[in-house]
Amino acid sequence: VNFDKTLFKSALRVDQLLTADWETFAKVVFKIEDFNKFQKMVVEGYLSKSELLEKILDYLECWARKIDALYLFASTPAKFEYEENAETPSQDMKFNLPRASELIDKVLIPLARKLNLPIGLKVGACRGVNPDLAPCNGGDGVEVVDTKFLQSLCRKFADVKFLVTFLARSNQHEACVLSNKFRNCHLYGCWWFCNNPSIIEEITNMRIEMLGTAFSEYCV
After folding, report:
1. What pLDDT is stored for residue 13 in this prediction?
2. Which domain of life is it from (predicted)?
3. Domains of the chain with CATH codes
């Protein structure tokens, strides 16, 4: 892709890591269209767990360098949780490919560290609330999020910067407290359903009072 990098800055989307979307990995990273064939190769040992994770990491690193990404970026799926001890034993690979939490530990975090990039997260979207609006992507809603996953990530990976915005108004105060307690948690923006003048004013005032200038106030 040819574009003026002095005018347009880029981020690398890594949403599939947070959803453990192995069908997409099979097609895009391993060039195997038939997911059943991919699973069979894993079960029969043609692709070990270490090979799977290494190839995904290499693929994402290649693209991050190619587009000169400023950060890694993803929207969390609904009801997202992070398990701190989520490693899938090798003997269980025939039944379970690595889950999202393990992909975070073994791919996303190593990639962020290797390239010295922050991880951007948009949290709180609930996809397909009204399926009738799906054709125009207008059926998505909002959910109040349990922020324990963010606490765990910030605590466990203190050397990695997390750029976070929450979609639910109800999460904003808790988010400010988290950002106050973890130096690697940086809040930004008033996203989507929070991008209304009255809510922007409320959130901005709260952040200034609790965080001073330690946040980014651009609206998305």
Report:
1. 97
2. Eukaryota
3. 12-211 (3.20.20.140)
